[in-house]
Amino acid sequence: MIDILNLDKSFSGQKILSGITLNIAEGEKVLFLGHNGAGKTTLIRCLLGEYRPNRGKVTVNGHPVIGERVAALRQIAFVPQLPPPIRFTLNELFEYAAKIGHCSIDKIKENSLYFGLDAEAHKHKAFYKLSGGMKQKILISIAFSRNADVMIFDEPTANLDAVGRDCFRKLIGAPEMRGKTIVFISHRLEELSSIVTRVVELDLGEVVRDERV
Description:
By secondary structure, the chain is an alpha/beta fold. It is 30% helix and 29% strand.
């Protein structure tokens, strides 16, 4: 499903990732742990083709993310830790997400309501003007509406309240999610302990722990 081979990444001569080799199989639920600066987000950005590695490669379903990025990412839904400053209104964002993600606007709104957010009442507001929690709920709602084979979450509950975190756990633990490949970056191991099947810990850009749980 996801193959990472001998991956190195440096910025201004400082090595952030060093010789990362991992295979994430279909259906695995993998949690990446590590202190700030361990290389977790850099690894995800290499996986998504946002960063070009200095050495090594990443493939998704046999497609290299550098060179065949569209094909590689076609079945990936991603929720970043920091929501981008999107200037679309919610209406415009939902229309755009439905078009490129081949999903239903009604499903996005339904997922938003599950998180206690009435998207219809905010449809003319610009996304970037919403609160951090509202932005996170919208992006998570879009990700779940896509029905993608692979889902990647970078600190998905960081901006959510207790109710929102509970809703996220219930969605991610639903029966229809069992066959999906899910990658988490999170400091909240206790929230995901009943979901993850594998824990990978990074330190100073290297894998120091890789355990199935």
